[in-house]
Predict the 3D structure of the following.
Amino acid sequence: MTATTADFIEVYPDALDADTCRAIVARFDASGQDQPGRVGGGHYPELKHSRDISISGQADWRDVEQRLNLAVLTGLLQYLRTYPFSLIAPLMLQQPDADGTLRRLRYDDVANMDEAALMKLVMKVFVPGKINLQRYAAGEGGYPYWHCELFPKAADAETLHRHVLWTIYLNDGFGAGETEFFHQQRKIVPRTGSLLIAPTAFTHTHRGNRPLHGDKYIATSWVLFQRAERLYGNG
């Protein structure tokens, strides 16, 4: 395999169609459910200034949750084919050869795996995180604090199970408002319906820059590893 330079930040245009994005934004504004954005379980507007709705598990948002998760799953499958070690390096995954003998998965196995087999593996290994819809008001909203997505605060260690982050941009044209990655010196310009996927660790420390001429809307969450007892059993 030829070595290549990669920053592991991928953007998939048109992961969600523009009409669906506009409908989600309209529902957000009409819902009256938005709350001040939180950071690590607390409200720190100097770090993150937004209005958020956590839609996961809410019956009236179930259709949106399913639509977003489907769009992310499609992008995730592409991401795993580009970066097979994101799936196999953390785990000692095995598959049967033609004679039924189990062997460890290799990176080329993932890259060449048919869609159904890869989907089955993804369903076994990963679980979708809780989805947050967010609105950043023009000229004042933003997430200017440099941060990553892994932190050891949650009692059940869920925040340490986050493997990749994702954001779907629900609108654009507001000026600035980029997702900026510190070490990669890269700014992702929001485009309606685009899906951003990147690792969650400190290597991909990032921030959300302030939109200037209009409100910015996003959907965001993570793809997490299943809990250990689900992956390995109680033994």
